[in-house]
Specification:
Blueprint (H helix, E strand, L loop, with lengths): L3 E2 L3 H6 L11 H12 L17 H17 L2 H14 L20 H11 L2 H11 L22 E3 H17 L3 H19 L9 E3 L19 H13 L11 H18 L23 H16 L5 H16 L2 E3 L5 E3 L11 H5 L8 H15 L2
Antiparallel strand pairs: 1-4, 2-3, 4-5
Helix pairs in contact: 2-14, 3-4, 3-5, 3-14, 5-6, 5-7, 7-8, 7-9, 8-10, 9-11, 11-12, 11-14
């Protein structure tokens, strides 16, 4: 059967960003369709990866929590609980957690969520186990965490999200507030100091040793601003103020980074489609292409920032509306009746611009569903 576009033009024509109701809610349809696609959340991982306590599942649980909070539908809460309970024993030991990679910290966010919902100490114990993974985690000389113990001296923007969204919530809910918030601010500000651009964007990563094949010989920087990589930071800085106290000395520093990033996204939005490109600051290049997951993450940042009063609705709402409409065109039903998302990218750091734009245009990777759900949810249910 020929693929049928999920989006309905009548919905797009009638869509208004500030409307009281949007009749067709992509977020709920996509989230429930995802659960139909992957009824066993323990299987949310790369085929080759035996460790299911990692970022793919962690990000889906992150998204399911968002939509549960908006709708109150227990379907999403039960899905999170099922995943978390598959990962720990009755004492709260996480079966497969290891601190060899920042990607492995993200599911700890769901542990804290379940502790908040139930008060069951096993979830708290499990979260403490994940937090303790930072105790001997390798760092560069400036304190930035390595992306993984295999990525010697490499700090990636992806990993800042994976570790610090967990640690920010840990400090707020579990404890060690001084350590947790200071570490969050340190990681978030230092990566921008090293990798930030004059336009408020952030390069994909940095190698202090300058030995990686992708590292600039003088600066150690990665060669591009990658869409989903910058998107991870965008989601983090959208949410970090939910946890970081206003009187923390790093609060104003992060707020400045936040506003610069929003301005940068405004500058580099594709004027034709409303989306953002695989290499964000080169969207005018003919060989560049609109990337779905990063676009969803940027929608989330901008809409949440309007809701919290950090940026102007008058200036940024038109950007969100255009991006939302553009992103929906990347969704379609496949022959099994499941929603597919096209033009997605979930790569690591690669050697040059050409490698970024010639990387596979993936169909329905797990991360893209997380981004699509959080972005459509925040537009449709706020």
């Amino acid at each position: 059967m020929k693929k049928v576009q999920v989006f309905l033009f009548v919905c797009l024509l009638s869509f208004q960003l500030n409307a009281q109701e949007i009749p067709f809610k992509w977020s709920e349809i996509t989230a429930k369709n995802f659960i139909e696609r992957v009824p066993n959340p323990d299987s949310i991982s790369m085929i080759w990866d035996k460790n299911h306590f990692s970022w793919q599942a962690g990000y889906i649980m992150f998204a399911m929590e968002k939509i549960w909070k908006s709708t109150g539908d227990s379907t999403y809460l039960n899905y999170i609980k099922k995943y978390v309970d598959q990962q720990i024993d009755e004492q709260g030991k996480v079966f497969t957690f290891n601190n060899s990679n920042l990607d492995h910290f993200l599911p700890g966010y769901a542990l804290i969520f379940m502790y908040e919902q139930t008060g069951d100490v096993k979830y708290k114990n499990a979260a403490i186990q994940v937090r303790n993974g930072f105790n001997n985690y390798p760092r560069n000389s400036n304190g930035l965490f390595w992306h993984g113990n295999w990525a010697t001296n490499q700090s990636w923007i992806d990993g800042v999200f994976m570790g610090q969204i967990f640690l920010a919530r840990y400090g707020s809910v579990i404890g060690e507030r001084e350590y947790a918030f200071d570490e969050v601010v340190k990681q978030m500000t230092t990566i921008v100091k090293i990798c930030g651009t004059v336009d408020g964007l952030i390069m994909h990563g940095w190698d202090e040793s300058k030995k990686a094949s992708w590292a600039d010989g003088e600066t150690g920087l990665a060669p591009a601003v990658w869409s989903e990589g910058l998107g991870w930071y965008a989601v983090l800085i959208a949410d970090v103020f939910d946890y970081l106290p206003k009187n923390h000395p790093g609060y104003s520093k992060l707020l400045k980074i936040h506003k610069n990033l929003c301005r940068g996204l405004k500058k580099y939005q594709d004027p034709n489609t409303g989306m953002w490109c695989q290499v964000v600051d080169k969207c005018g290049a003919t060989d560049n292409w609109n990337e779905t997951s990063g676009t969803g993450m940027f929608i989330y940042l901008l809409k949440k920032s309007i809701d919290k009063g950090y940026i102007s609705s008058e200036i940024y709402s038109p950007l969100i509306e255009k991006a939302y409409e553009g992103m929906l065109k990347k969704a379609s039903y496949n022959d099994q009746g499941l929603i597919d998302l096209v033009d997605c990218s979930s790569i690591g750091i690669v050697d040059n611009y050409n490698a970024y734009i010639n990387s596979p245009k993936e169909v329905s990777p797990f991360g893209a569903f997380g981004s699509f759900i959080i972005s459509t949810n925040i537009v449709e249910n706020r």
